[in-house]
RNA sequence: GCUGCUGUAGCUCAGCUGGUAGAGCGCGUCCUUGGUAAGGACGAGGUUAUGGGUCCGAGUCCCAUCAGCAGCUCCA
């Protein structure tokens, strides 16, 4: 007999060798029906596992979050069988679960196309209907290796697996796959699924290896959950900044310059509003602002180390027979400005910001709307200071960064610290000092962070800031990078207290990262419905008919005098159509006016997304709107 | 850069196995002068991404180039 401890604290005695499934049945028929897998002493196992000692057991049902992963993994096996039955020459590689679903990498010369998904799903449905059991078989590592000796992918998987026992799972007639498990008891329990997409993926993520086909699928406990998930995907699609940018006439791309964004006047209003805010904050934090040239002599880039470490991403040109480079970063230019005159320790720290336009030749396949472009504006800054000042300067940058993020409603951030990469300049000692300074500042601000070993820039370690948008998607924005080597390379010095020349420390930092990308992020974050202070057009006056054109002009002038961005819709349309059009353009405020309003110097205010409307005096509206702009308020209600 | 898919009117898309382009929205003109999420009529718009090829004939089939999309690798 074995003593089984259950999650509610109770114990149950069962015969030695009782399977978990039998245990579930003894507890209750409902539980047995709902059971997907189990956890024995912290380890996830199949229901068919026998209990042979005193253990604690938790039966996992679809209510537990672990079940979804198990289900999806099983679903991946079902998909693998379906693919193998359609294309018998398929070699299976690896099929894990991912967030929201699973994929299976397969080696198959014939391309699987989206039109084939239906066929795969049909085959899967047959396998699910058969409801055949998942059967686990364990053999020794040696046996497994000889069994699969002809299969380089599975042999590789065995070599990567831990332990001496290698397990296989089979279901139905003949389908078997190397797998750690656990699995749902039978193919009928893989949930509601859908094949999502297919794309190429290198074996082991290594570009020198064969390109495999990665088939993505998703599965959920119920059809309803699957439909909800597909619905959310639809919603995210509507928020796509590439779609909204086109629809709202904010920016565009053209074949004439792949990866180079064209900012339209609407997009530039958003841009300039952010710049105004950004400048005011930087001014308050003691930054000066400079602007350095986009094209600089190639020699400079040899000196900075970019030629050796970043050449493949740079654009080059020639002027009067002399080599020039288009800047991919602003720091060398910043160093030249520093060098323009002498500096004393008394001036330190010197904080110099630059909205620098940089060009980087990104691989053609990685471009993505405003998120990944070949030309972008960094909200860069370089701080020159003494080693003693590093920590407090970093603390200052962190405070400034958080203040800016909060203005856009980003409250959920996390920080990552990246250390020395393989390709780097500077001594190990330098790297240690720099890395410790960053850690010190984070400790002082009591900020938790994650460490990414080997992920730093070639000239120094860095801290990266990540934010989460309203759809809980994470984005990297700001970065702080310590640099002890660039000042040395450029021969930057300052005169210290003891009247000797010393090399300053240089801190590179960006808060928003790239203006282009940040604008893309906030478009998605706000779903195109920009807060008043960022909205390209803030108010539109909608006269009921031509008879009110004159009063519309009066209202428009009042709005313009108050500094609000506005227009009047004088089109020959009924009021309903004008409202619908303004809503489509995501106008924050619509002021409906007719003879009634004209009589009392009033406006009837309609707010974006709100059905009810309210008549107020012009002055009252202006006062409220002006305050909302100044306070960067998101709520539009008056 | 790699793999796969896509490219038709300003936008979103239709166009079956090859037989000389179509809708809705938008745009223009006119009618209508209206009270809160799209009134009506008429009309203008396309070397079907580009360049080759097969064919009596190509939006449709084949090849190349360019661009976009989904991923992979890389990255702000």
Q: Say how many strands there are.
A: 35
N-C termini distance: 72 Å
Instruction: Give the C-alpha Rg.
Output: 31 Å
From the coordinates shown, what is the CATH architecture of the largest domain?
2-Layer Sandwich
CATH-defined fold name of the largest domain? BirA Bifunctional Protein, domain 2
Molecular shape? globular
- Largest β sheet strand count, sense and barrel closure: 8 strands, mixed
Number of domains: 4
Which structural class best describes the helix and strand composition? alpha+beta
Number of helices: 20
Average pLDDT for all residues? 91
Name the CATH homologous superfamily of the largest domain.
Answer: Bira Bifunctional Protein, Domain 2
Strand-residue proportion = 25-35%
Oligomer: single chain
Query: For the record, what CATH class of the largest domain applies?
Result: Alpha Beta
User: How helical, in percent, are the residues?
Assistant: 25-40%
Strand order of the largest sheet: 18-22-23-30-27-26-24-25
Q: Extract low-pLDDT stretches.
A: none
Write a structural description:
By secondary structure, the chain is of the alpha+beta class. The chain folds into four domains: 2-61, Beta-grasp domain (Ubiquitin-like (UB roll), Roll); 66-236, 2-Layer Sandwich (Threonyl-tRNA Synthetase, Chain A, domain 2), CATH 3.30.980; 277-293 and 328-526, BirA Bifunctional Protein, domain 2, CATH 3.30.930.10; 539-631, Anticodon-binding domain (Rossmann fold). The chain has 20 helices and 35 strands. The strands form nine sheets. It has an eight-stranded mixed β-sheet with strand order 18-22-23-30-27-26-24-25. α3 crosses α4 (117-130) and α8 crosses α16 (515-526). The chain is globular, with a radius of gyration of 31 Å. The mean pLDDT is 91. The structure holds one RNA strand of 76 nucleotides.
